[in-house]
Design goal:
By secondary structure, this protein is α/β, with parallel strands linked by helices. Helix content is about 35%, strand content about 10%. The model has no long low-confidence stretch (mean pLDDT about 95).
């Protein structure tokens, strides 16, 4: 497979107000010529506009662009069935998830959003008051959203790619230390709009052309490997820089991961974190 010309790693944010610094959106962009840029966006709207410009530039130049995001692209097997997806639905489960989130999520250019209401609505649709989505401020607590982890999980708590990485967090967890659930709810609609508008491929759900121009979204986990000191103002800034540097330094390994075979449910509903080796029980 042909290597990528440009690599972007994104530390996403589900913030409800514009914010910079820690717990905001950080992006590292590197190209195969050695150029590097680090960005800190205060809103998801700004980040979406920048990503659109990068995709459009890649399409115009006929280059290969890889964009990685630190939130789940899918959920444990059975999620879409619990949501009511018919076995005869021509859309694969992952597309149902992406479209459902896009239809329900409201998010303006000041980061004001309804993510907790969406999580409660999804729980209600599945008929389980305790979850699977959980974690919220007290004022967001209601009959279909709890601040506490469910005592039982009627759907698996973790995806296959999360099991070998114990320090990773499940996509159901919306709040508290290390949570990524809110980022998934707020990030997937952004990627769905960009995918629909610009024809971006989504790995591993969709195949990647072996050569020629392409723009690709993938899921990453910024704490998968040790992070050195890149001189950033915060850990988030160093993590995205470390990821693009690792990718650039060893693109053959990057492409090996993308071409490995994963269980069928990975391509249908769960997705996969790029860099987690399916053959390694330690996820290393």
């Amino acid at each position: 497979m042909q290597e990528f010309d440009t690599l972007i790693a994104v530390d996403w944010s589900a913030a409800s107000v514009p914010v910079k610094g820690e717990n905001s959106i950080w992006m590292s962009r590197r190209d195969d010529g050695g150029a590097h840029d680090l960005f800190n966006f205060s809103t998801r709207s700004e980040a979406e506009q920048y990503l659109a410009s990068q995709i459009e530039a890649s399409r115009a130049a006929g280059t290969r662009l890889l964009m990685g995001f630190d939130f789940p692209f899918g959920y444990p097997e059975g999620f879409t069935k619990a949501l009511g997806r018919s076995a005869h639905d021509p859309n694969p489960p992952w597309r149902v998830i992406w479209q459902t989130f896009t239809d329900l999520v409201e998010d303006n250019d000041r980061n004001q959003n309804n993510r907790f209401a969406v999580a409660a609505q999804l729980n209600q649709r599945m008929g389980f008051a305790e979850g699977p989505f959980w974690g919220c401020p007290v004022k967001q607590t209601g009959p279909f959203l709890s601040p506490y982890r469910p005592k039982q999980h009627f759907i698996a708590e973790r995806r296959l790619c999360e099991v070998p990485v114990p320090k990773s967090q499940p996509g159901w967890k919306l709040a508290y230390i290390g949570s990524v659930g809110s980022q998934g709810l707020m990030g997937i609609p952004v990627l769905e709009r960009l995918r629909a508008r610009h024809g971006v491929r989504v790995w591993p759900f969709e195949g990647i052309p072996a050569s020629g121009p392409c723009q690709v979204f993938t899921e990453l986990y910024l704490s998968l490997w040790p992070v050195g000191d890149f001189g950033g103002p915060c850990k988030d800034a160093d993590q995205v820089q470390a990821m693009t540097q690792r990718w650039l330094d060893d693109q053959p390994q990057l492409l090996t991961w993308m071409n490995q075979r994963y269980p069928a449910v990975v391509y249908e509903e769960e997705g996969w974190v790029l860099g987690v080796d399916p053959a390694s029980p330690a996820g290393e």
